[in-house]
Amino acid sequence: MSTSPPSPDNAPPTNRPVAAALRGQPAEDGAGVRLTRVFQARAAMNLDPFLMLDEFASDQADDYIAGFPSHPHRGFETVTYMLEGHMLHEDHLGNQGHLRDGDVQWMTAGRGIIHSEMPQQQEGRMRGFQLWINLPAAEKMKPAAYRDIPAAQIPRAELANGGWVKVIAGSTPDANGQIVHGPIQGLSTEPVYLHAHLTAGAPWQTPVPSGHTALVYVADGEVLIDGRTLHQGWAGVLGQGAQVALTAGSEGADVLLLAGKPLREPIVQYGPFVMNTREEIEQALRDYSQGTLTGV
């Protein structure tokens, strides 16, 4: 009796290997906020559609108290995820948004926004992340918008062994195979933004769309991916495959998994403006100096 090899349709999904590892570097931004710049894509490598990821984390008020006073943006989106602390967003339209423990703000700069992000505490720990995601050319000049997502509205996929995954964007299965969807859906870049909290030695795997850029950032602890260890403060840029599979170290781990559909468009960046051509950047600078950046 002969046996046939399994068909490709029945083959297990391929795991994404670590194609490159990046170590976050100390930096300052805003009015002197000390942070870790995990990556700045054009300086590190092409991580299309992602442009930048920063982590801010300190118990010392002097590291964060100056905040990010009023400044402009055009042409991309920012995602601010607050783990601990209290930050206030205010913009040129008079909007206010408070970010506290576990809250997320998903802001689309579009044509232009002028906003500030200022700490609302004089002491204690402040920790969080800000991710920049590019917008396609067809959406760079759309009206600015933002969405505040309270921690209570961010679903969790419960895992075996007491772990969990907060699903900010995209989706992931829980321990029973039920798909948990995040509040952010339907964007052109099809983003996946997951925060996984893993117990000691626990494995975790989740599907990621083939063709998406994907990376893992180790916020706490360490993880093993395809035989390679990533320590706290390191990001692993992942190769191609149908799923991400990793195992937490002996002390457990907290990781961010980010994935997005590449735009494959030219990128020209000048500070807070991200466009497709130099001429568009020059126009943004003129618009800002003439008070017409936001179109209102």
Quick recap:
The chain has helices spanning 41-44, 278-289; strands spanning 18-23, 25-29, 33-40, 50-58, 68-73, 76-84, 87-91, 96-99, 104-108, 113-119, 126-134, 145-149, 156-158, 164-169, 171-173, 179-181, 192-198, 203-207, 213-225, 228-231, 234-238, 243-260, 268-270, 273-275. The chain is mainly beta.
Detailed description of the structure:
It is a single chain. This protein has 296 residues and is mostly beta strands. The chain is 5% helix and 51% strand. The chain contains two helices and 24 strands. Strands 1, 13, 14, 17, 18, 19, 20, 21 and 22 form a nine-stranded antiparallel β-sheet that branches. Strands 2-3-4-11-6-9-12 form a seven-stranded antiparallel β-sheet. Strands 5-10-7-8 form a four-stranded antiparallel β-sheet, with no helix packed on it. It is globular, with a radius of gyration of 20 Å.
Features:
seven-stranded antiparallel sheet; globular; 5% helix; 296 residues; 51% strand; mainly beta; single chain; disordered N terminus; 2 helices
Mean pLDDT: 92
Proportion in β-strands: over 45%
Q: Indicate the structural class.
A: mainly beta
Which value, in Å, is the CA radius of gyration? 20 Å
